[in-house]
Amino acid sequence: MSEGVKPPLLTAGQPFRRSGALGVLERALGAINQVTLFFGMTALVLASFVLTYSVFSRYLFKAATDWQDEVAVFCIVGAVFLCGAWVQAQRGHVGIEAVASILSPRVNRIRMIAVDLMSLAFCGFFAWKSWTLFHEAWVDKMTTSSTFSPPLTIPYGLMGAGMTLLVLQLLLQSVVRLAEIGERE
Predict the structure, then answer these.
(1) Which end of the chain is more exposed for a tag (fewer CB within 10 A), N or C?
(2) Is residue 99 part of a domain?
(3) At how many degrees (to 10) do helices 20-59 and 153-184 cross?
């Protein structure tokens, strides 16, 4: 709610207001976010089917299920990380309204920029680390320790891609906020 002062940057069905380079970036990232949202929703549905199958096959048919857990976890990891940028675009994260309600609008704008920049720094580090893990898993051909043993490049690649999209979303939102402050002054 503290972010509710201004509509989110990229809402489904909302027309983009900006023109120029920022408008193009908003539309491009919005389109990418919609695609990753579809894949995230599909991955969650797939994970629920796999886990349901796992329960039935274990308890009704006494069948071993060593692959289902990893497939479900990989799907959930993909859904969580790939949809992070879309959630950020909606400002769908949890905010603490108590602080925002006692600050003046000017100080609150500065607080939001500071939070976005700190989030950008943290997510940038996380994305970099995810890509280094992906590279190590690729070079060393790392797999999980189960008998199914899928490559670890899958979850690390999903983490890296999702965090990179989140970094781009945070960077875009920070630039837009700074541009709006520059326009006001």
Answers:
(1) C
(2) yes
(3) 150
